Write the structure tokens for this entry.
Amino acid sequence: MAGLDPEDWSGIRAMGHQMLDALFDRMEHVGEGPVWQPMPQDARDALKTGFPEQGQSLEELHSRFTDLVVPYGNGNTHPGFMGWVHGAGTPVGMLAEMLAGGMNANCGGRSHAANEVEREVIRWALSMVGMPEDGSGCLVTGSSMANFISIITASRAQNIALRSQGVGGCKMVGYAATTAHGCLPRAFDLAGFGSDALRRVPVLADHRMDLVALKRMIREDREAGYTPFMVAGTAGTVDCGAIDDLAGIEAIARENGLWFHVDAAFGALACLSSRFQKALSGIEKADSLAFDFHKWAQVPYDAGCVLVRDRKAHAAAFAQSLDYLTREPRGLASGAPWFCDFGPDLSRGFRALKVWMTLGHYGSHRMGEMVEACCDLAANLAHRVQTTPGLVLLAPVTLNIVCFGIEDLSDQDVSELVQDLHESGVAAPSTTRINGRLAVRAAIVNHRTTTADTDRMLDAVIALAAGRRV
């Protein structure tokens, strides 16, 4: 049977260079053209070719990619993208993805260099947030999976019998602020506890968890026969970027014998800046922590990370002993513990290379400067909002997220305005609700974004709002 490699490598080599040149051209000019544009139906239909019986040339496939896929991307590489919290990528990360694809390493286990790269990345991550470097962790798809792994680990640390007997009627409950990300109640659901087992703690006027309410809720649950097992603080809330009082939450967790988890999906990278060390105080005491390298660290998607202080507790939640996955003292099957011992995935790609190369190339100092630059842009944007008639700042700007309202417009008007802004190609913010009011939400995560981009976005908002008030 014929193999899949070319008989003559010169053609695919030349095509590979052509593809790489096209990638660099697009990245060099990434700020030109619209941030986003809707994909027309004819382009969608052109991708519906059915499962191919006969192969096509690489040149033809690349042409279709260039014409039908590239123009209609998500837009997060463009400096005008300010929606949600999406990293923008770098040329270094792009090259690392290519190199990792060439190795095609399975990083679920066994003894090989790709796993050593991931172990080094985990040591870097532990060091970045101040957790002990003898802790454990692994790279995953994103913070949703990292939070899920943390909840599984926390519950099994409290009751290891859950692994074999299931959650049953154990009545275990955890706590997070009402502003916590939706992946946390989903993780409680997937873990078998039910989403209601995650108690949602009220927040104060500054959008941080109310610690008095947390204490009361723990006490009331225990009196009602429930078993509290964890509390999750947030470093950079999804709506406005607030940072919970992590040190205060940690103290309550210790007092009550609870696992202390931190969801720091994008806020963890603020640890690279001395400016935010006080606000993040307590993050280093986390029992587990979830964050994404593909957000503020600008690593290409996907590259989430879970960190756990107690390596033994982490492995106890996931490690399996199976005949066909026997760990040996030497040979390819050595190198235990394997990364499949720290999460549900046995098949795992070489995510670590793009993290290792990105952080290794730019260094922590330059990455910290980038984080501060994003926060400075957000502060500048907030100032413009506060000094512009008809606009109102709806939440304090703690890090890099600016949420503002538009006077005299209904929530529906604001929603339509943001959709109009997207379709204009000028900028792409998102929306959220602050105290029940629909807000325009600009998250400055892109290292390419400048004041010119935020000003262009705000000027477009002002113009669109004026048109809707007429």
In short: The CA atoms of residues 255 and 419 lie 48 Å apart. The mean pLDDT is 95. DSSP finds 14 helices and twelve strands in the chain. The first helix runs from residue 9 to 28.
